[in-house]
């Protein structure tokens, strides 16, 4: 199969890929915001947090008919690789998806890694395709959305106040933009608490967090146009950092924001810090970014604790995503 790797400096190829992505969104996830060229180019250059993946294009008659996404982490989980396949809605059920998936599996195999992972919507056609390619379902993740125009500020304040009483030995720090140099190592250690979140049956190892990864994430989000907001809980006024929650607000999509990691270190759990952090973030975000209406988050379906926090704050289910894996 002849594929062309997408170069972020190739304006024509980027434009053709944007057309392809928007067609897929319209057909498959019309409830999601549109893709942005800035976000696509940033992902090609920086990935999510400094480790960019590969996007390969299947081009037919000058148009993108399909894509193959590959990601080979170098800092952790070097036993596996991510494989993502997408086909233009007008080109499906003609063998392109299978050919792209087989190519991706061959490349994972050639790299020496033993496992391929991927994700699909929880829908009949993509799930059947993954199973037909030999993948086994290993996780369920739920996408939820908060409509800030419908969330009662008094209710959020009530939840925040109750949590603050349970967490009276902690103080909160609001931080926008990059983490200060004197805190970056401690923030990396705190961020690693996300490894305690449920991963169901996925064959994955703990992710490695260090200052380089924190800075890589910040650089990637800045390139994508996402302004970072972070609320951090600290023991007392000068004690260790205990937990955080983080939101990204895309400059080119003023109605939208992404609720990313919320994590509390094990030694500080049991004080309702998760609720305190997220409720405070909602209050801050409404004041700092009044144009934001939609706030999306994702959790393992088995993460009952965080789902309870989210639903109390008004998050509602949008859709479910399935995680898949197979040996190569």
TrEMBL record:
One Pfam family in the UniProt entry: Acetyltransf_1
Sorted UniProt keywords: Acyltransferase, Transferase
Entry GO MF terms: acyltransferase activity, transferring groups other than amino-acyl groups
Domain of life: Bacteria
InterPro entries for the chain: Acyl_CoA_acyltransferase, Bact_Acetyltransf, GNAT_dom
PROSITE patterns associated with the record: GNAT
Ranges of residues in domain N-acetyltransferase: 1-162
Protein name listed in UniProt: Acetyltransferase (GNAT) family protein
Organism lineage: Bacteria, Bacillati, Actinomycetota, Actinomycetes, Propionibacteriales
């Amino acid at each position: 199969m002849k594929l062309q790797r997408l170069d972020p400096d190739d304006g024509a190829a980027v434009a053709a890929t944007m057309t392809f992505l928007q067609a897929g969104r319209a057909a498959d996830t019309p409830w999601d915001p549109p893709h942005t060229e800035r976000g696509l180019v940033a992902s090609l250059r920086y990935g999510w947090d400094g480790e960019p993946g590969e996007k390969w294009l299947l081009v037919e008659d000058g148009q993108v008919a399909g894509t193959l996404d590959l990601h080979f982490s170098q800092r952790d989980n070097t036993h596996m690789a991510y494989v993502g396949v997408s086909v233009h809605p007008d080109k499906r059920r003609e063998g392109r998806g299978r050919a792209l998936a087989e190519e991706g599996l061959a490349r994972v195999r050639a790299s020496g890694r033993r496992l391929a992972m991927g994700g699909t919507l929880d829908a009949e056609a993509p799930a059947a395709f993954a199973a037909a390619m030999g993948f086994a379902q290993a996780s369920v993740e739920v996408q939820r959305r908060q409509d800030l125009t419908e969330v009662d500020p008094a209710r959020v304040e009530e939840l925040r106040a109750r949590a603050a009483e349970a967490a009276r030995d902690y103080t909160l720090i609001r931080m926008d933009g990059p983490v200060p140099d004197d805190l970056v190592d401690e923030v990396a250690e705190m961020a690693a608490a996300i490894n305690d979140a449920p991963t169901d049956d996925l064959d994955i190892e703990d992710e490695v967090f260090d200052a380089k990864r924190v800075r890589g994430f910040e650089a990637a989000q800045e390139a994508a146009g996402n302004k970072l907001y972070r609320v951090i809980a600290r023991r007392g006024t000068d004690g260790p950092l205990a937990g955080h929650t983080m939101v990204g607000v895309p400059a080119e999509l003023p109605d939208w924001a992404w609720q990313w990691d919320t994590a509390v270190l094990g030694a500080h759990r049991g004080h309702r810090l998760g609720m305190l952090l997220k409720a405070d973030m909602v209050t801050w975000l409404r004041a700092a970014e009044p144009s934001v209406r939609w706030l999306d988050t994702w959790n393992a379906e088995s993460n009952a604790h965080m789902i309870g926090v989210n639903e109390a704050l008004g998050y509602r289910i949008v859709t479910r995503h399935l995680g898949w894996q197979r040996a190569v």
